[in-house]
């Protein structure tokens, strides 16, 4: 196997080394020069970001591959190196950009907190591991980095380890991810035994049998389900919100959880049609479970977490149904607007939380900030608009790309359009609550400029500017979309969905109901609200008849939807409880019981040790003799 | 004439008695004696089988070494039992059982 | 053969056991030095022991055999497989010597026993004859029985007694098994062709019983199920450097003998008794029992004893493959296991000395005050778990690849089962391996630890820790040596 490929590019190792240096130096400087750590880490990351920008400009077209032998076992050589394609350099740049912005933001957000050096050290380490994952040309190296991002995520979720919830969430995330890792490990073993190589450029050129592709695809799917919180391994992500908010923005929204989708995009060629079909089902299920969750939450970070789950499901479904490029495009735009949403939410939490109290994250108590925090709210709203897929935003473009790809399959198209409706609904709901004029009970904190700057940059990044010459056409954006012919009706549908979604949200959430969504579906509640609404809106009062039809229509739809959702959530809850939790419980019980049994044998009496050993040997011997005699 | 298989049966019986002593005797010294029985069962085998392969003295030579080995083992064993006796004032293995797994 | 010729052959053979000669010479020197009052200090004896071990390791590396050659009329065989283990044993002995600086009680006997154990294990890995197997392993074991009680405490005596009774009982049974195999084949040399041919003609039941007795005796040395019971009790009571030594040298010596013996009994897969299945079963049971047993342990040394039982299971899984590729994986795994074990045990020893840690709970929060020590312990534990960036990951990867490859090649579901049970056990092992790092770093200490004088990282620990990382980053250094081991019978 030829592993030497000599497209050396000095920027890549430098870009990867800088965050690693930040990791080491932060730990080293921490005890004595704690105040210097944030500035130094950010400066190092800025340098790294410059390197990635150079790489991005160099490789906007064409690929390059560099590898040197890492180690060998017998005649098999495992190389280590990088594989730069327009896709991987874009992802690398995104990782570094978001990481840089999160570093800057954290200078303000983490000021006065304990363990700053540890925090910045692990941020640097995460950036290094994620960068390695993105550019690595060898799946074994990818796997190592995959583990390392999991490790840094574990450390950062549990950053506030004084809180029991943070520790438990970190452990949960870690364990669910291990389950997924087994999938990746098995996939690697399968590839190694079938293809004899784990080098991605070599694998692309290889023709594997359909069965192998199905098996490998399903194993990779398990891995990505763990990392990207896909059904049924999704319940760790909302818990992971116990970590600091900038960490949620970087790791649990923009980059690490997207690593699963990125791997899917990169290994799309290894999936058979069957495996893709399973992936599509998983993605669509996740899409709805996430959307449903986001609608029922009042904790702003939880809403965003469920929204992330839902969007990741959309990406997975998009990669499986549409094209890897379309899915990747959504990954790209999602990274910006979701990071922006998290940073914005963090700023608002910072504004309303009182010192020495638990952070205020309930959207019902976060309103009334319009006078004092105008910029933050505008940036937040822009990112939310991008999430909902408003025209003029990047989210609109990437969603358009996905919809255009599936427009010939009416079922998938319908499902995705419905999902957009749900997305719009919860995005608008969140914004309506946050923009509410209810005054705050206590004085709010100003948000420092150093936190506003990254937020502003991200919200600008969520607009169409820089992505496409025209705000409504994707053809002029990503080169791969050139081939797609535009279909104006698709845009009409998505705009209609948007308008209806915002309209429904307006009617449902304008008054910021404090009850949960379940109560909304009780018809009496709905009627009361509707009537009240009409009473205060003379314009609608005139059209009682229309309203009547409207009510019946809307009511029916909402009823059906609610029944569907309740059924779905029940089934999913059952699967979650019985299969996932049940699996965990069974294993835990079995492990405990087994451990107890084995320990009870070790009772300290030497002759019983001997007796057990002899008994085992003799009974095995008798059994073996019986077997041999009856052959 | 005693055939090889007669000795073989005797040695198997010796082994059984030895193992039985290992598992049931209430005194460490008697356990040591059980050990000797097993070793001697092996020696009997070695010597008896050597009759069948009489062109070399491999089995008998090994038996000599095993006898020496048994002496070494007994010496170390008695020393260790003595050491335990000093601390526990007993040579009953069941009563020397402070080290065990938590329940 | 005439007496004269065979005498000459034996004299010629002596030239090829230089490393053992060095160890013997060193043994005599330490023996004499201990009798001279001015020489009989810990430092002096330690230096002499260390010099001997380093010289023996150096000789073995320099005198690397390129092919296999029977010596002493077939009693032993000199080959690269044996030499590889011999270097591991010398290094392990050297590390134990280095960390035994405060062995104030009977240092003379202590270092002599250490040398004797290494000497015995050197012969064990070369042996191709039942007599040498017994003598060499008994040499290791007798030294071990004595060393187990070297804390001279009440529990030390108990641990030593348990190890002795269990060990000598199984050794006696093993010798009985050998006598049966001798009866079946007429040969005590299990590497010669005559043995294999006779084995295939012999009654299956006799071979099965004899072979099981022999394998059982070896499983005890490896601390594998069902003869693992002695390990937790003995480990808990013995001095920590001795435990580190125990968990590496006798175990790997037994494993190396098992590789040779199982190859001989396997007879190229022609024999009716499924030896892969038997060893595979022991591997499965060891993994499961070791990992589950470790879950609720409160004493760090008991926990590590169970961990070493589980690790034996992983190594036995490689032995069960019974193909030359698996030997490569086994050698790699054995070295990584040895290094990681030393890292953990040495760090544990330091913690015991500096903070008086007896149970796991007493490690809480110490990571803040002894960062380096805690870090190296963590690296060692991560390596035992098999997580990157440590050599343990690479070792597990090789092992699992080999298992899967063997499954692919033979189609036997046993290997698939070993593969998946091994993976599942790796997950289970996370729970107890990561408990110590969790306590070290995430919990706060009840009070400030007393002295900061001890508990620092010295160069021994640093080297061990760096070696573990290096084995991950550049495993070629080790695979290079392993590739020089051609395992051919």
Describe the fold and architecture:
- The complex is a heterotrimer of chains A (631), B (103) and C (489).
- Chain A is mainly alpha-helical and 631 residues long.
- Chain A contains 24 helices and three strands.
- Chain A folds into two domains: 1-137; 138-506, no CATH class.
- Chain A has a three-stranded antiparallel β-sheet with strand order 1-2-3.
- The two termini of chain A are 46 Å apart.
- Residues 517-555 of chain A have low confidence and may be disordered.
- By secondary structure, chain B is mostly helical.
- Chain B has a single domain, classed as Orthogonal Bundle (Helix Hairpins), CATH 1.10.287.
- In chain B, helix 1 packs antiparallel against helix 2 (28-52) and helix 2 packs antiparallel against helix 3 (58-88).
- The longest helix of chain B is centred in the last third of the chain and has 31 residues, at 58-88.
- Chain C has helices at 3-14, 18-35, 42-62, 80-99, 107-126, 130-148, 154-185, 193-201, 204-222, 230-237, 240-246, 249-266, 275-294, 300-321, 324-355, 366-369, 371-385, 391-410, 413-433, 435-442, 459-473, 476-483, and strands at 69-71, 76-78.
- In chain C, strand 1 and strand 2 form a beta hairpin.
- Chain C has 489 residues and is an all-alpha fold.
- The model of chain C has no long low-confidence stretch (mean pLDDT 88).
- Chain C starts with a helix and ends in a 6-residue tail after the last helix.
- Chain C has a domain at 286-489.
- At the A-C interface, strand 2, helix 5, helix 6, helix 23 and helix 24 of A face helix 7, helix 9, helix 10, helix 13 and helix 18 of C.
Quick recap:
The complex is a heterotrimer of chains A (631), B (103) and C (489). Chain A is mostly helical.
């Amino acid at each position: 196997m030829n592993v030497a490929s000599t497209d050396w590019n000095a920027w890549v190792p430098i870009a990867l080394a800088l965050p690693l240096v930040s990791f080491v130096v932060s730990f080293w400087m921490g005890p004595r020069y704690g105040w210097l750590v944030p500035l130094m880490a950010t400066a190092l990351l800025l340098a790294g970001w410059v390197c990635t920008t150079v790489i991005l400009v160099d490789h906007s077209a064409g690929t390059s591959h560099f590898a040197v032998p890492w180690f060998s076992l017998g005649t098999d050589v495992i190389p280590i190196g990088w594989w730069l394609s327009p896709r991987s350099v874009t992802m690398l740049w995104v990782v570094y950009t978001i990481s840089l912005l999160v570093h800057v933001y954290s200078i303000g957000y983490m000021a006065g907190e304990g363990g700053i050096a540890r925090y910045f050290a692990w941020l640097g380490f995460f950036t290094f591991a994620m960068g390695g994952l993105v550019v690595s040309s060898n799946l074994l190296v990818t796997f190592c980095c995959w583990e390392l991002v999991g490790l840094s995520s574990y450390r950062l979720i549990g950053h506030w380890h004084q809180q029991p919830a943070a520790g438990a969430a970190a452990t949960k995330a870690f364990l669910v991810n291990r389950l997924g890792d087994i999938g990746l490990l098995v996939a690697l073993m399968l590839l190694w035994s079938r293809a004899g190589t784990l080098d991605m450029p070599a694998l692309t050129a290889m023709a594997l049998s359909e069965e192998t592709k199905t098996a490998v695809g399903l194993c990779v799917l398990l891995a990505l389900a763990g990392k990207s919180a896909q059904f049924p391994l999704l319940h760790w992500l909302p818990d992971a919100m116990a970590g600091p908010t900038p960490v949620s923005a970087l790791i649990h929204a923009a980059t690490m959880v997207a690593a699963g989708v990125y791997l899917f995009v990169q290994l799309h060629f290894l999936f058979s049609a069957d495996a893709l079909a399973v992936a599509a089902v998983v993605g669509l299920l996740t899409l709805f479970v996430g959307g449903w969750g986001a609608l029922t939450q009042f904790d702003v970070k939880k809403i965003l977490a469920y929204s992330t789950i839902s969007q990741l499901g959309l990406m997975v479904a998009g990669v499986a149904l549409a094209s890897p490029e379309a899915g990747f495009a959504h990954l790209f735009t999602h990274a910006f607007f979701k990071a922006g949403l998290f940073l914005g939410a963090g700023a608002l939490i910072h504004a309303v939380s009182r010192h020495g109290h638990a952070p205020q994250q309930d959207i019902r108590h976060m309103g009334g900030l319009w006078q004092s925090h105008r910029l933050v709210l505008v940036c937040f709203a822009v990112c939310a608009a991008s999430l909902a897929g408003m025209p003029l935003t990047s989210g609109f473009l990437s969603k358009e790309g996905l919809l255009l790809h599936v427009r010939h399959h009416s079922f998938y198209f319908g499902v995705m359009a419905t999902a957009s409706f749900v997305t719009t609904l919860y995005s608008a709901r969140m914004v309506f609550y946050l923009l509410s004029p209810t005054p705050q009970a206590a004085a709010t904190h100003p948000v420092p400029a150093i936190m506003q700057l990254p937020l502003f940059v991200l919200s600008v990044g969520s607009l169409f500017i820089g992505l496409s010459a025209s705000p409504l056409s994707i053809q002029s954006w990503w080169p791969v979309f050139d081939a797609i012919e535009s279909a104006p009706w698709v845009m009409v549908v998505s705009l209609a969905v948007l308008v209806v979604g915002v309209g429904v949200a307006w009617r449902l959430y304008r008054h910021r109901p404090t009850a949960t969504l379940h109560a909304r579906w009780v018809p009496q509640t709905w009627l009361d609200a509707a009537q009240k609404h009409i009473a205060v809106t003379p314009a609608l009062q005139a059209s009682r008849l229309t309203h009547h039809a409207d009510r019946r229509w809307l009511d029916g739809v909402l009823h059906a939807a609610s029944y569907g959702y309740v059924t779905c959530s029940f089934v999913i809850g059952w699967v979650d409880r019985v299969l996932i939790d049940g699996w965990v419980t069974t294993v835990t019980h079995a492990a405990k019981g087994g451990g107890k049994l084995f320990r009870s044998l070790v009772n300290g009496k030497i002759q019983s040790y001997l007796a057990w050993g002899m008994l085992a040997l003799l009974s095995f011997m008798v059994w073996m003799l019986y077997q041999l005699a009856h052959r | 004439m005693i055939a090889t298989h007669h000795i073989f049966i005797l040695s198997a019986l010796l082994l059984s008695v030895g193992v039985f002593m290992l598992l049931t005797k209430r005194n460490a010294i008697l356990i040591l004696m059980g050990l000797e029985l097993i070793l001697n069962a092996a020696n009997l085998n070695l010597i008896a089988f050597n009759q069948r392969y009489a062109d070399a003295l491999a089995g008998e030579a090994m038996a000599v070494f095993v006898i020496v080995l048994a002496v070494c083992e007994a010496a170390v064993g008695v020393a260790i039992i003595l050491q335990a006796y000093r601390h526990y004032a007993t040579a009953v293995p069941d009563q020397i059982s402070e080290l065990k797994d938590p329940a | 053969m005439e007496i004269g010729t065979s005498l000459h052959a034996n004299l010629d053979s002596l030239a090829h056991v230089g490393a053992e000669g060095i160890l013997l010479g060193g043994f005599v020197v330490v023996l004499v030095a201990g009798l001279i009052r001015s020489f009989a200090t810990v430092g002096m004896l330690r230096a002499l022991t260390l010099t001997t071990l380093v010289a023996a390791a150096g000789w073995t590396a320099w005198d690397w055999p390129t092919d296999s050659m029977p010596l002493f009329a077939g009693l032993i065989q000199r080959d690269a497989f044996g030499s590889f283990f011999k270097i591991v044993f010398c290094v392990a002995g050297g590390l134990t010597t280095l960390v035994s600086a405060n062995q104030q009680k009977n240092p003379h006997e202590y270092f002599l026993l250490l040398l004797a154990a290494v000497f015995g294990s050197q012969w064990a890995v070369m042996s191709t004859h039942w007599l040498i197997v017994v003598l060499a392993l008994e040499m290791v074991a007798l030294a071990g029985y004595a060393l187990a009680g070297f804390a001279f405490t009440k529990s030390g005596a108990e641990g030593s007694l348990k190890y002795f009774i269990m060990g000598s009982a199984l050794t006696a049974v093993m010798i009985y098994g050998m006598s049966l195999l001798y009866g079946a084949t007429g040969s005590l040399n299990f590497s010669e062709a005559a043995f294999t041919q006779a084995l295939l003609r012999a009654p299956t039941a006799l071979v099965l019983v004899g072979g099981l007795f022999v394998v059982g005796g070896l499983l005890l040395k490896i601390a594998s199920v069902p003869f693992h019971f002695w390990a937790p009790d003995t480990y808990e009571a013995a001095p920590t450097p001795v435990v580190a030594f125990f968990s590496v040298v006798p175990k790997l010596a037994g494993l190396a003998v098992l590789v040779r013996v199982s190859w001989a009994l396997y007879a190229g897969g022609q024999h009716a008794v499924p030896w892969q299945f038997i060893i595979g079963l022991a591997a499965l049971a060891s993994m499961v029992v070791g990992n589950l047993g470790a879950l609720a342990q409160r004493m760090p040394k008991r926990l590590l004893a169970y961990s070493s039982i589980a690790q034996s299971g992983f190594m036995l899984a490689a032995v069960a493959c019974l193909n030359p590729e698996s030997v490569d994986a086994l050698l790699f795994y054995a070295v990584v296991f040895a290094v990681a074990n030393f890292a953990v045990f040495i760090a544990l020893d330091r913690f015991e000395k500096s903070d008086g840690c007896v149970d796991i709970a007493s490690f809480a929060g110490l990571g803040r005050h002894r960062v380096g020590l805690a870090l190296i312990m963590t690296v060692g534990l991560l390596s035992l778990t098999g997580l990157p960036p440590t050599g343990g990951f690479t070792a597990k990867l090789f092992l699992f690849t080999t298992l899967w490859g063997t499954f692919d090649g033979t189609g036997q579901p046993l290997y698939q089962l070993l593969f998946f049970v091994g993976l599942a056990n790796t997950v289970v092992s996370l729970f107890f391996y990561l408990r110590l790092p969790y306590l070290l770093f995430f919990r706060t200490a009840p009070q400030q630890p007393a002295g900061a004088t001890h508990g620092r990282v010295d160069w021994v620990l640093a080297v061990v820790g760096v070696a573990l990382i290096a084995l991950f980053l550049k495993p070629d250094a080790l695979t290079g040596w392993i590739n020089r081991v051609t395992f051919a019978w």
